[in-house]
Amino acid sequence: MATHPANRIPGKQPRWSQRFEGVLHPFIVRFNASIRFDFTLLQEDLDGSVAHGRMLAACGVITAAEAGQIVDGLETIRREAAAGTFRPGVDTEDIHFAVERRLIELVGDVGKKLHTGRSRNDQVGTDLRLWLRGRIDELEILLRRYGQTLLRLAEDHVDTMIPGYTHLQRAQPLSLAHHLLAYVEMTQRDRQRLAQVRQRVNVSPLGAAALAGTPVPIDRRRTAAALGFADIYRNSLDAVSDRDFAVEFLAAASLMMVHLSRLSEEVILWASQEFAFVSLTDRCATGSSLMPQKKNPDVPELVRGKTGRVFGHLQALLTVMKGLPLAYNKDLQEDKEGLFDAVQTTRDCLEAMIILLEEGLRFQPRRLAEAVGSDFANATDVADYLVARGVPFREAYGLVGGLVKACLQEGVLLQDVPLERWQQVHPAFAEDIFTVLQPRQVVAARLSEGGTGFVRVREALEQAKTAFAD
Ligand code: ARG
User: Beta 231-232 vs 169-175: how paired, if at all?
Assistant: First the structure.
C-alpha cells in the first residue's frame, strides 16, 4: 500500500509510492519542506483545487457527485483554517500535500481523485499567480491612497516655497507642491507598471501538469476562466518553469521602494537642524535612550533601510532562475519567501509613509520663506531679465556671475544691491529688477509646461487629482 505524503498514516514517515522502500532522513524532511512559508498560499490552493475538481466533473473525468464531495471537503478545510484548527506540520511537506491529505481524511477515497490531470508543478505556479494577483490589487489601492495623501499635502502648499536643489546646492526656488507632485508622478508610473505586471501574472499554467501536459481530457480554459485568468500559457514547459512574472513584480516593487526611499531621504534631511524645513510630530518620531534633546526620523530611515531587502529579493530570484534547465526544478521553491517578504515590506512602507505624511511631519513655512529669500537662487532670473532686453544669454550669464561673486565677498544678497550699481553692471537694469528678484516672482515666472509656475502647479494638481480619484 502506497503511503504518499498526501495519504500517509499520521505519526509515520511518508513514502512517495511503492517505488520507495526507505524513508527520508528527518533533517531532510525539514530541509525539503516548504509548508512553513507556503501555508500563505492556502486560500489560493483551495481556489485552484475547487476549480480543478469542478472542471474534472465537467469534462466527465469524475462524476458531479464526486466533484461535489471534493468541493465540500475543500470548503471544510477553508473553515478549519479560519477557525485555526488546520495547522499542517512539517511532515506534510508543502501546502499542496497538506490540503490533499486533509481532504482525503475528510472525504475518503474520492479525495484521491482530485490530483488527476495535474501536478504540483502547475499547481504551485497557479497558486503563486493567484496570490500575487490579489496582492497586486491590494497594492494598487495602497498606491492610490499614498498618491492621494501626497496630493492633499501638495494642495495645502501650492504657495509655500522651498529651495530647489541640484547637486544638493541651492538652485532655484520651487512651489513645495511642485516638489511633492514629482513624487506623485513616480507613484503614477508605479501604478502603471504594476498594472502591466498584473497582465503577465494573470495567465494560467494549470493543466500543464508535470511538464508535458496530460492525456486526461481536461479543459484548461475552463479552470482559467473559473479562476479569473485572462489567458493560459501556450507551452506546458514554459508554464511550469516561468517565474518572469515574479521577477517583474520584484523589479516593480524595487522601483516603488526607490521612490519611497528618495522621499525618505529628503524628509530626513529636511528634519535635520541644518535644514529645519519640517518638524517631526510625536506620532512618528522617537527619542534617544541617551541624548534627551534628540528626536529621530525613524520612520523614513526604516523605509530607506528596508529598500535594500526588496532589491535583494529581486537579485536572489534572478540568480535562482539563471541556470535552470527546463522545466520544473526544486530551486523554484526558493521563489516564495522573497516574494512574500517583498510584498509585505512594500506594503508596510507605503502604509508607514502615508502615516508619516498625514500626521508625522509639519512643514515650517517661516523657515522655508527665510531659506528661499536668503540665497542667489534668483541669479538665473537676472540673466533672463537681460536676455529679455536683448543681451545674449552667455554675456548676461557672465555679468551676473561677476555681480554674484562681488556680493558673496561683501556678504550681501542681490536684493541688497542699489539700482545705481545694477546700472553700472548693465544699463538695461531698471527699478523693476527688484520685483524680478522676489522668490515668489522667480517661481511664478516658470510657466513653461511642467514648470513650477503657480499656475502650472495648480493645473498639474487638478490633473493628478483626476488620475488618483477612486
Ligand atoms: N513545494 C514545491 C514548490 O514550492 C511545490 C512543487 C513541487 N514539485 C515537485 N516536483 N517537487 O515549488
Answer: unpaired
